[in-house]
Write a structure and sequence with these properties.
One of its GO terms (molecular function) is protein kinase activity. By secondary structure, this protein is an alpha+beta fold. The protein folds into two domains: 3-126, Phosphorylase Kinase, domain 1 (2-Layer Sandwich), CATH 3.30.200.20; 134-381, Transferase(Phosphotransferase) domain 1 (Transferase(Phosphotransferase), domain 1, Orthogonal Bundle). The chain has eleven helices and 13 strands. The strands form five sheets. The protein has a five-stranded antiparallel β-sheet with strand order 1-2-3-5-4, sandwiched between helices. It has a two-stranded antiparallel ribbon with strand order 6-9. α6 (148-168) runs antiparallel to α8 (232-248), α6 packs antiparallel against α11 (315-324) and α8 (232-248) runs antiparallel to α10 (291-304). The protein is globular and about 60 Å long.
Length: 392
C-alpha cells in the first residue's frame, strides 16, 4: 500500500468519520503518528495557536474557523477546526482531508497533518504568509504590490496547479471553486490553490458527471449553473474569469465600469472584438506590463470562458500556450452566461446575453432540471460578491 493511501486510511479512521467511533485513544494516535509522522497531538495545536486565541483567527469557512499557529520548531501553520454544529462543514472538512491526503504539488496548498481529540477534528496546513489573492487584488491600497511579473507568475502557477489536479494526480480532481480568495500566496509569491471542500473526483471513463451545484457567484460555468453538468471545463471557465480579474484588477461579480457591459467577461470580449483589449488592463500595471504577454493572457482568458465547454482549452493546452507563447491563437467566441443556451456547430457560436451578469442572478436561489445521461436536478443558493453558495 502506498504511503499516501496509508495516510488516507489512517486519517479516515482517526477522524472517526463513517463510524460510530469518534476517534482513537492517545495510544492509537501515538502509534499512527510514529508510522505517518502526520498526526499532531491536540496539545501541540493548542500551544501553537495560544489556545485558539481570537487574535490568531485567520478566517471562517463552511467547515469552521481557521487559526494561525507556530510550532516549537519555528514552522508557521494554519489550523482548520471543524465546527461541531455544521453538517455541511463536516462534509467539506472530510472531503478536503480525503483529497489533499493524495495531493502534492508546488501550486497546491500542503496538508501537513491532522488531529482528532474527542469531538475536536482539525486539519493542519502550511501557513501561506501573503494570505489570499483577493485581499491584494481587490483592495486599491495593496494592488500595487501585484506588478505584472507577479500577476503573470500567478496566472502560470494556477494553470500548472490545475493541470496537476486534472491530469497528473492520483485521480482527476475537479476543484469546483477556483477564485481569487482560494489562491494563497507564499513568501515568494508562489500561488497555491486552496480550499478543496467542494472538490470532486472525476471518473476517468466519463465525459462529465451530473451533480448538485456548488460554487461561487461570478466564477461558475453556465452549463454547470444551469444543468449541474460538471467536467474539468468548469474549472477552466473559473480559471478564465480569474485571469481576466488579475489583468483588470476588477471583480467579475461586482463589475460596474461599463454600463453597456453585462459583466467583466462581456466587457473584455467587446474590447477584444474592437481590437482594444489592452484598455481593460489595470492602470497600476502601466509601468510594469509586458504588452505582448498581457494581450496573450487576455486571449487565453477569453478562450477559457467560452460558452460551449467543448471549445474551451484543456489546462494542458493553457500551460503549453503560456510556456511557448505562440504567435497565433484561435479566435474566442462569446463568453458563457448562466441562463442562456449554446449550440454546437462547426463554426463557434457563443451565447445570447439575456440572463444578466455572468455568474450572477437576480434571484438568490437557482433551481434547474436537466436530462443528459438521465434525468436529475440541480439547485444552489447564491451568495453575492464572490461568496460561496451552499447546497440546499
Amino acid at each position: 500500500m502506498s504511503k499516501s493511501k496509508n495516510f488516507l486510511n489512517n486519517l479516515i479512521k482517526t477522524l472517526g468519520f463513517g463510524s460510530a467511533k469518534e476517534g482513537h485513544n492517545e495510544e492509537d494516535l501515538e502509534r499512527i503518528a510514529q508510522q505517518e509522522q502526520k498526526v499532531f497531538p491536540f496539545e501541540t495545536l493548542v500551544a501553537a495557536t495560544k489556545d485558539f486565541h481570537p487574535s490568531n483567527k485567520l478566517g471562517q469557512g463552511g467547515f469552521g474557523p481557521v487559526y494561525k499557529g507556530k510550532l516549537v520548531d519555528g514552522r508557521e501553520i494554519a489550523v482548520k477546526k471543524l465546527s461541531q454544529s455544521s453538517n455541511q462543514g463536516r462534509k467539506e472538512f472530510m472531503n478536503e482531508a480525503k483529497l489533499l491526503a493524495r495531493v502534492q504539488h508546488r501550486n497546491v496548498v500542503n496538508l501537513l497533518g491532522y488531529c482528532a481529540h474527542g469531538v475536536e477534528k482539525l486539519l493542519v496546513y502550511e501557513y501561506v504568509i501573503n494570505e489570499s489573492l483577493d485581499k491584494l487584488l481587490f483592495k486599491s491600497d495593496r494592488r500595487q504590490e501585484l506588478d505584472w511579473k507577479r500577476r503573470f507568475d500567478i496566472i502560470c502557477g494556477v494553470a500548472r496547479g490545475l493541470l496537476y489536479l486534472h491530469e497528473d494526480s492520483h485521480n482527476c480532481i475537479i476543484h469546483r471553486d477556483i477564485k481569487a480568495s482560494n489562491i494563497l500566496l507564499d513568501d515568494k509569491w508562489v500561488p497555491k490553490i486552496a480550499d478543496f471542500g467542494m472538490a470532486r473526483l472525476y471518473p476517468e471513463d466519463q465525459t462529465h458527471v451530473n451533480t448538485r451545484v456548488a460554487g461561487t457567484n461570478g466564477y461558475m460555468a453556465p452549463e454547470y449553473v444551469m444543468h449541474g453538468h460538471l467536467s474539468v471545463k468548469a474549472d477552466v471557465f473559473s480559471y478564465g474569469v480569474l485571469v481576466l480579474e488579475l489583468i483588470s484588477g476588477q471583480r467579475n461579480s461586482s463589475f460596474n465600469l461599463d454600463v453597456d457591459a453585462l459583466s467583466l467577461l462581456d466587457w473584455a470580449y467587446k474590447l477584444y472584438k474592437k481590437g482594444r483589449s489592452l484598455e481593460m488592463m489595470d492602470p497600476k500595471l502601466a509601468s510594469s506590463a509586458v504588452t505582448d504577454q498581457v494581450a496573450m493572457c487576455i486571449q487565453i482568458g477569453l478562450l477559457c470562458i467560452q460558452g460551449d465547454p467543448q471549445l474551451r482549452p484543456t489546462m494542458h493546452r493553457v500551460v503549453v500556450i503560456l510556456s511557448k507563447k505562440p504567435s497565433n491563437l484561435e479566435e474566442p467566441s462569446r463568453p458563457g452566461i448562466p441562463g442562456s443556451r449554446y449550440r454546437r456547430s462547426h463554426r463557434p457560436v457563443g451565447l445570447s446575453s439575456t440572463a444578466g451578469t455572468s455568474g450572477e442572478s437576480n434571484s438568490h436561489t437557482t433551481e434547474s432540471s436537466f436530462t443528459a445521461t438521465g434525468t436529475s436536478s440541480a439547485s444552489l443558493v447564491v451568495r453575492d460578491r464572490g461568496k460561496r453558495p451552499v447546497e440546499s
